[in-house]
Design goal:
The structure is a homodimer of 368-residue chains.
Chain A lengths: L7 H5 L9 H8 L5 E2 L11 H11 L11 H11 L6 E4 L1 H13 L5 E5 L4 H9 L3 E5 L8 H11 L3 E5 L11 H7 L8 E5 L21 E6 L12 E5 L1 H6 L11 H12 L1 H24 L3 E2 L6 E5 L4 H13 L2 E2 L11 E5 L3 H19 L1
Parallel strand pairs in A: 1-11, 3-4, 3-5, 5-6, 6-7
Antiparallel strand pairs in A: 2-8, 7-8, 9-10, 10-12
Helix pairs in contact in A: 3-10, 4-10, 5-6, 11-13, 12-13
Chain lengths: 368, 368
């Protein structure tokens, strides 16, 4: 009895996981986390109207979702002042990244990103046989000039830029990104990941014509809207590219419950404003806690704060491990020099109390 | 300003949709359907325990789902008597089909299915550049011997068999499928789609060792469990193949709410039994209505009945159109000779009352 035959590309791929989730870690440590501050989720939760809409929709989930995502696209279209054919909805930005890479990257095709930027994007590029070219962060920022130069040098199919960025929490002005478009090589798509844009200062989102064929921007309900587990993201771009997603996407792949929740969440701007304010308070508190322990918080335009532990990657890893042992789920940037830091997601006051208590012990443990 | 560059494979794909959903048709006709009997959804709905579990989970959807689907895999493992490493969970069978095709089918690779079988599988095969070889149905059944012979002839990577099948509703005994494994060529994977297996008579599911590397079987929460809009399917197969899904899947792609619902639904066997009984009653009623109108219902082991309209495809299409105009959402098999029939999903008595009233008028209209 012989098994199936895998194409070379697939046979050579690792069965890797971009991230190990907190539930896996909880089972390994045999106890639940006391504070869940590692995945940049919104512990403040979704809008109560979104929760109610999902509860109402639960009994109707015997029906497949509307494959065209009509209602949600209409709402986003009106709010953003773009046409419905500028919008694609997918199973989170992760799902959309997979589709986009499949649409553009054939085996061997070059793709440019920052070294240490979103691993799930890299996972998709590698998974479709693309060749990743990585540019270092510069002063804890994605280096736009270097990204564009590298994209020109290798004739990249896609150049990935997150703004604000993860995992450092830094950001560029929208004006800087608009200007960078002049340096974008012909035939390279700028993939602008704006997962954290709602938390950023005014002026962080560039003004880009939705019909500009050189850019796709992606946003999500996973962060400010507090619906990471519902899997709803969207992309804004030129109609030809947007329409192309219909060639490869899982048309009936959206949850009907998530569609209903996202629509209600999108309309509850008061809740969004409240979450943004709570996140700003939490960022300040995380920064204060870090400083009180002699550490250096980096400025953040996101719902997390990356804290420089002041030594090398091994030290930061030891701090991280000691936090996890105390029941505080946090993560750290994977790539040097970012790996001198740990990353703490915004939490409620009670979550941050736990972090505040655990951090000095973790530092003491790491210094030993 | 130039747009992105698409690989040849993608540039040549149609922006096609495997199915047009009922919501799209409702917007086109400017009125909601009175009876939703076209997509083999379970109008009886999910278990009340599943609804409650999803409602409870809605407020927690700020958390990403457990990427390992631990709890649901554990439950299926115990119920089916297979190991957790024999099970993969995905975003419906549709999602799993996409992953499986990507894992095995490189451009030009041969794949075998029945002409008129599940279009979404074909969509994925074409989407990854595979070459489809189609074998006709035989007496409204998938022709197992011909499928195996064609698989051997073309050295297929995958041979697709649904049992019971859609869209005809016919089925083979499990024993016949077990015997067919002897004719499965080396290096061909049998993809056994058991989406409708819960509705089928005892003995329809073959006994196949979950570790047999020649077979993957897929099941779903979309049909008997009434959760089509929640997107949960699962595959059972040998650990090497199951593990390979980790190379390509959207690890955090599951809805946390859907995970909770599926777990509760899976454990409510009383509701499952009730739905199966209600579906059997509905099948009988659809058959009676068909016969009362001079039509021939085909035997069904699914939650739908395919009704032979006794003339050609154009006539059946006219009947279908006239039903839709009266607010009855139904579909028909796309491929001759199946296209002499229309397909009606099991409904509640009130749904079937509407169908019963509409059918004679539709026939009258089609005969004019």
């Amino acid at each position: 009895m012989t098994g199936p035959r895998y194409p070379d590309l697939i046979a050579k791929l690792p069965s890797s996981v971009p991230f190990v989730g907190p539930e896996v870690q909880e089972r390994q440590r045999g106890a639940p986390f006391l504070a869940r501050l590692g995945a940049n989720e919104s512990v403040f939760g979704p809008s109560p109207f979104a929760v109610a809409a999902m509860q109402d929709a639960a009994g109707q989930c015997w029906q497949y979702a509307d494959a065209t995502n009509y209602d949600l696209i209409r709402a986003i279209s009106e709010h953003m002042g773009v046409r419905p054919d500028n919008i694609i909805i997918g199973e989170g930005i992760d799902g959309l990244l997979g589709y986009l890479v499949r649409l553009l990257v054939a085996p061997g095709d070059p793709v440019v990103t920052s070294d240490g930027a979103y691993p799930t994007f890299n996972y998709h590029v590698v998974g479709f046989g693309g060749t990743l070219h990585k540019v270092p962060f510069h002063n804890d920022h994605e280096d736009i000039d270097a990204l564009m130069a590298k994209a020109a040098e290798v004739e990249a199919k896609i150049v990935y830029l997150s703004n604000p960025d993860n995992p450092m929490g830094s950001w560029h002005s929208g004006a800087k990104i608009e200007k960078a478009l002049d340096a974008l090589p012909d035939g390279t798509l700028l993939l602008l990941d704006e997962a954290y844009i709602e938390f950023a200062p005014d002026g962080t989102a560039p003004t880009i014509d939705a019909d500009d064929p050189r850019v796709i921007r992606m946003r999500t309900f996973s962060k400010a809207f507090g619906m990471a587990g519902a899997r709803v993201g969207y992309g804004i771009g030129a109609p030809e590219l947007i329409k192309s997603f219909d060639k490869v996407r899982n048309h009936f792949g959206m949850s009907r419950i998530s569609q209903a929740g996202a629509l209600a969440a999108y309309e509850d701007t008061a809740w969004l404003d409240e979450v943004i304010a709570l996140v700003a308070e939490a960022r300040d508190r995380i920064a204060s806690i870090a400083k009180a322990n002699g550490l250096s918080p980096l400025p953040s335009a996101t719902n997390f704060v990356t804290v420089d532990c002041g030594q090398d990657g091994a030290f930061a890893k030891a701090v991280l491990t000691a936090l996890i042992e105390q029941g505080v789920f946090v993560r750290m940037p994977f790539v040097s020099p970012g790996d001198r830091a740990i990353r703490i997601s915004a939490g409620r006051p009670a979550d941050l109390d736990i972090f505040e208590t655990a951090l000095p012990k973790a530092l003491e443990s790491a210094r030993r």
